[in-house]
Amino acid sequence: MNSQYPLVSVIVLSYQNSQYMTRCLDSILAQDYEAIELIITDDGSEHFDATAVKELRDYIDAHKRDNIKNVQILTSPKNLGTVKNLRKALAIYTGDYYINLGADDVLAYGSVISDYMFMMKMYHYDPWLLCAQCARTDAELNVKGYHITNQDKFDILSRDPKLLFSRLSHRCLLISLSSCYKRGFEQKVSAYDTAYKYAEDMHTFQRMARRGITPVFMNKCTVLHAQGGIANNGGDYSIDIIEQFSKDKRLMFKQEVEPYLDELFPEDKKAFHKRLQWEQDSLVKARLLWIKKLSLLPLLKFLAQRPSFFFELLRSLTRFSYQKMGADLSKMPIKSIFIAVFAMLSALFLLSVDSKLLKELLEKLLLWGIGAGIACLAVMRGVMLLGRLHGKG
User: What is the rounded CA–CA span in Å between residue 86 and residue 301?
Assistant: First the structure.
């Protein structure tokens, strides 16, 4: 380690957001810190091919200064998930410290890394990690708010690992993007467990707190984080990715929190149970929003391939509806349950059909209904005439 300028590895994680990559790189290349390693690792993006890699390397070579000591660009033939994508970079980084960003995030100002290193040196011990404030922005980086609240700051500054774990049981008040980690942190806390695919941060911080490790806090906003990623069910992610992320969170609550419920403060235990319900409701809403994007035929094809998706959604909708109404499903008449199921099926159908197609379908049904009505009248009239003729005979 260079005692004056320890090497800092900046890891940029990319998946289907390479259109923002140069903006992220510009914020890294503008850093005034003297020793930076840059690692870009893409997780199987559609257009991240050999040509894209060459263009990216050419851009970096054209804009970098002497402080960029090493550049590595990693690719993957398929989507591995955030956890494995990050671990791929951590297997090769050579820095004494590391930070990780998304390709659509940017460092907020030109001396972020210098400030991180200055803060690390302020302490008589060698902290395992430092965390700072992170701004929530839109795609154009207009600030909409901040992740860490004033109460969060007090909790972090308390340096109490039990309090921190209790808070982390239901809310990730620490932000991975605006954190700086000492080399070996990942082994120290058993971070980035591959049992999880997309959720890399919250279980890592929970394990950290349970091992008695707390971060130092720098009261500066160091990262601008563009909203719309998978963590808030945003972006154009497939339903498979959204559901896997939800599965990650359910697994995290089951493995990382439920065995330690007795250690939670009363207010956090209550908030934890509310979070579980919120996660269930959010998944239902995410599924419905995704269905709404599909036209009828693609939806029917998807349901034929994944019938379990439909039945799980139906079950979730039923549970959600009756919870909101405060009704006991076991006491409902079977007729009412069938009516509810039929209504949900109808709602799914209407969600999947665009208005123009629905209008055409209704017009056809109306014409068919009128035609069928005329045909029935004609048959009835014929029967009546035959009856009269038979009577006269």
Answer: 34
Per the CB < 8 A criterion, the answer to whether 220 and 166 are in contact is: no
Give me the residues of the chain with pLDDT under 50, please: 232-234
Domain ranges of the chain: 8-232, 294-353, 356-393
Tell me the one-letter amino acid at 123: Y
Taking only the tens place, the pLDDT of each residue in 330-345 is 555 655 555 555 555 5
Q: What's this model's pTM, rounded to 2 decimal places?
A: 0.78
Q: Please tell me the distance from the alpha carbon of residue 390 to that of residue 393, in angstroms, as a whole number.
A: 5
Residue type, 4: Q
Give the Cα separation of 90 and 82 in Å (integer). 12
Instruction: Check: CB of residue 75 under 8 Å from CB of residue 189.
Output: no
Find the farthest-apart pair of alpha carbons in the chain and give their distance in angstroms, rounded: 119
Q: In angstroms, what CA-CA distances link 266 with 24, 169, 173, 240, 262? A: 41, 12, 18, 35, 9
Cα end-to-end span (Å), the chain: 116
Beta strands in 43-125 (DSSP E): 68-74, 97-102, 106-107
Q: What is the Cα–Cα distance from 74 to 89, expressed in whole angstroms?
A: 8
Listed residue (137, 213, 142) closest to 174, CA to CA: 213
Element spanning 285, H or E: helix 266-292
Q: Is the dihedral of CA 284, 286, 287, 292 positive or negative?
A: positive
Gyration radius of the chain over CA positions? 28
Q: Which CATH number fits domain 8-232: 1.10.10.10, 3.20.20.140, 1.10.1740.10, 3.90.550.10?
A: 3.90.550.10
With CA atoms as reference, report the closest residue to 247 among 211, 203, 206: 203
Q: Are 129 and 182 in contact (CB under 8 A)?
A: yes
> Residue for token digits 């080399």?
183
Tokens of 98: 């590391």
